[in-house]
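Q: What does the assembled structure look like for these inputs?
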Amino acid sequence: MEIRLKGISHSYRDGGLKVLSDINLSIREGEIVCLIGPSGCGKSTLLRIIGGLELPSAGAVLQVGDPPPTSLNPLTYVFQDFALLPWRTVEGNISLALEDHPIGRKMRNEIIDGVLARTNLTEFRKAYPRQLSGGMKQRVAIARALSVNPAVMLMDEPLSALDSQIREILMADLIELWCRENFTAFYVTHNLAEAVRLGHRVAVLSRRPGRIREIIEIETPLDQRSADSPELGRHQQHLWEMLRDEARAADLELANV
Amino acid sequence: MSDATVALTAPAEKPVRFRGGGFRTRPLGIISPIVFVVVIGLWELGSQSGLIGKLILPAPSEALQALLELIETGNLWKHLGASLQRLIVGWTAGTILGIGVGLAIALFSYVRAGAQPLVSAIFPIPKIALLPLFIIWFGIGEGSKIATILFGTFFPTVIATYGGVDNVDRTLIRMAQSFGVSWSSIVRKIIIPGAMPAILSGFRISIAIAIVLLVAAEMIGAEFGVGAYILLAGSLVATDQLIAGVAILSALGLTIAWLIGKAESYLLRWRT
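A:
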């Protein structure tokens, strides 16, 4: 399944503040598209629009082709703040996503076993979120997203709430997961290093009203990218040059809103 | 010469003064029983020495005597039984209705718009002022007493419930919607557990209100009940019995607070 964005524009308060302007983009099956942009440029809004949590003022999000029949929730989010229920254990949190689907208890347990194994969480099955570190919580959220077998994962700065060491480890985990399963993802971030490590393509959004300035393609396969490779460094430098002025302007703009 | 320069170049070392600390209470479990024993001991001593007049305040030992008498004659269970029944029926009914209406106010805009001003208007009325009206409506018997307690419990529960729901983390609800979780599942699995801490702290308030109203209601036309017992003792100037009755109420309040504490640590065991 492919997701195609056609002429998405969005403004808050009926034609007031315009946040997105004429976004055209497609997310092809099996690729990770990263979206970067200065803060307040509408990245998260765009993500909410893609998943159907918000309606755009103009344009449409199109689903090209059908999701695989085994997919319980084709468009599935991973949130920056994990969004785990504190009153449920790891297992219960994953179960929440499955309980409203007509699958038996046995099938549900099998799915939970499977995703816990794939995210190396099996021994934390009965733990409550408060007992887990930030990195572990985000692993649980990723396990929950995987449990519904999504066609496209919508990731909203999933590593931004974590410290840099854990971020590096989880990034490696995500790369490994992608190499095994070739999942499709739309990955919003403000971290350029993350974008060039994880993205097959990186789209750069301008400051508000956000429009796509450029989409760069990174040829190196995900598992051959290392933090110090000169090619990634060049891409990152190029992205930074593009973003720097936008970020600076956005910074000043916010001051006189 | 060299000694002098060393002394000049090496500045004096002294530890940085500690400025933190204070403003943090420590749990001191032994203090509260000691305070209890000291207060009652001083009181007893004052009574024994004649410093405190017999009629003004009976000695704790006399109140204890009255309490033992109450147990021996079996009247304790009659009074306490009648009171507990009213308290349990009234409080349970008020709580169930209160949670129901509180959830409705929190979840449906029309109910909120319609009922919220009504709740704000009726909540501050001292329910005891409505007791004569309840007696006309529900009779002088159990009905009016239970209605008073029910009414008194209902409003704080409504406010605690919808306040609790309003404070449930919106990101959790958005997460559930993004997974396609149904409306009723969101209410049962996210909104109610999320509002539970607020609902339980509402219980602490509503049970205290219920006990106050119970005693007040029992002072009007009740044969049995702790309130009736206290009223009778008062009219007979039997201050030892009066103190015994008050001690029963205090023990009742403590027991219920302990039970709510237990319920909290069970229902909210996911909290730190």
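The domain at 61-267 of chain B is CATH 1.10.3720.10 (MetI-like fold).
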